[in-house]
Amino acid sequence: MFIKSDSRMVNKGDWFVALRGHRVDGHSYAKDAINRGASYVVLEKSQGLKNEIIVSDTYQFLCDFLEKECSDRVSRLKLIGVTGTNGKTTICFLIYSLMWLLNIKCAYIGTIGYYRGKKIKNLSNTTPDILEIYNLLMDAYDNGMEYVVMEVSSHALDYRRVEGLKYDVLVFTNLTEDHLDHHKSMGNYLQSKLKIFNYFKDNGIIIVNGDSYYGKYFMRNDYKLVGKKGDYRIISYKNGFNGTDIVFGTGDREYRVHINLINLYNVYNYLMAVAVMDCFGISLDRVTEVSNRLQAPKGRCDMIGYKGALIVVDYAHTPDAVNNVIAGFRKMCAGEIVVVIGCGGNRDRKKRPIMGHSATEYGDFVIFTNDNPRDEDENVIMEDILAGVSRDNFVVIYDRKEAIEAGIDRLHKGDILLILGKGHEDYQIVMGDTYYFDDKECAKEYIKKKEKGSNV
């Protein structure tokens, strides 16, 4: 696309739109864009540059431009938006995977990247900026995709990253404490999520987690409920280390299926994906027939067996997600549940003591460690976490590698080690420096060393 908002990406003949961000003002890079060959620069205030276009709101200009230039092709895609605190990635990836298992061309945009048949690229945000979203949608269309399933974050809704889009089907998962550094209150968080209805087709359908307290706020338009009651009913489920056997009902029919995902929250995630398929008229007989071939996305309940114990790497990084993961594995645990966990820097401080309480209250032994301290003092983060702890069943090991190794050393047959917070992420950010780090890889490498009898 020949319009750019990052001067470093400008090629000769491109247009450059100067956007005012929260940390950077694009107007500061207008001259650089001209020097790189931009044919026009779109500004809110003149800088005396050649080929300026002055508008009152550069972001609105960009939105209008993208909608005008891309709507003909984008409108031909069937768009699915998934919003909520937890579960977005798994639900989107299950929808994406089911489509491909049924030979239906679908793209996925979200936390773990951009996929269309295979992973194409990593993305910097759960929901990318508006220019990148339109670029991805155009790429999806040009490569023959029929559907696009997207994670839609509250930040994306507040910052209008999905402006001009209209979703055929929406999914609301749940709303639990997170991002209050930005939203300040759960009421504000809810209002941000409700902005999703600004991007909804008049005849669109919304799938709602009917067992979520906040689900009632999303029961608009043509809505379908997922839960213990409703349009897609959980009749029973049985967890095992090899997956979950589910019996669910819709209408007057019951379906029995095995999926390679575990825990109750993944039963909800799966049924929401099923509901989306059903809304598009895709046979549930076909859907359930291929469901045993589904795999969880990277970093969501990734499991490693070790000497009769189990190691689980999961992205759980909110109090509710931590509670659900521990509770789910508690039912399958014959021994001790060990938890390795931390909290990110430069993020919501209010949830830190709650995370500390949840981990120590429901886990048997907890190792608190770093999880992307970013530019914040690791000691301050840890003080916030420990403020919520009322038990003495924990230690603090700041180095995440050492923390994971200590968790593995503690394991006996029947125990479960939960390594929480980072999931698919393969980096740590400490005082502005980013270095490679992958929780699952770290665990597997240490196990390999131990099995070789190395001096570790």
Briefly, what is this?
The chain is α/β, with parallel strands linked by helices and 456 residues long. Helix content is 32%, strand content 25%.
Mean pLDDT: 93
Shape: globular
Low-confidence stretches are none
Helix count?
A: 14
- Radius of gyration computed on alpha carbons: 23 Å
Q: Roughly what percent helix?
A: 25-40%
* Strand order of the biggest β-sheet: 8-7-6-9-5-10-11-12-13-14-15
The biggest sheet amounts to: 11 strands, mixed
Structural category? alpha/beta
- Share of residues in strands: 25-35%
Distance between the termini: 52 Å
Tell me the total number of β-strands: 23
How would you describe the overall organization of this protein?
The protein is α/β, with parallel strands linked by helices and 456 residues long. It has 14 helices and 23 strands. A hairpin with a 2-residue loop joins β13 and β14.
Give a topology summary.
Elements: E1 3-4, E2 15-17, H1 30-35, E3 40-43, E4 52-54, H2 58-74, E5 78-83, H3 88-101, E6 106-110, E7 113-115, E8 119-121, H4 130-142, E9 147-151, H5 154-158, E10 167-172, H6 180-183, H7 186-194, E11 200-209, E12 222-227, E13 232-240, E14 243-250, E15 253-259, H8 264-279, H9 284-290, E16 302-306, E17 309-314, H10 319-330, E18 337-341, H11 351-362, E19 365-368, H12 378-386, E20 394-396, H13 400-409, E21 416-420, E22 427-430, E23 433-436, H14 439-451
Parallel strand pairs: 1-2, 2-3, 3-4, 5-9, 5-10, 6-9, 10-11, 11-12, 12-13, 17-21, 18-19, 18-21, 19-20
Antiparallel strand pairs: 6-7, 7-8, 13-14, 14-15, 16-17, 22-23
Helix pairs in contact: 2-4, 3-8, 10-11, 11-12, 13-14
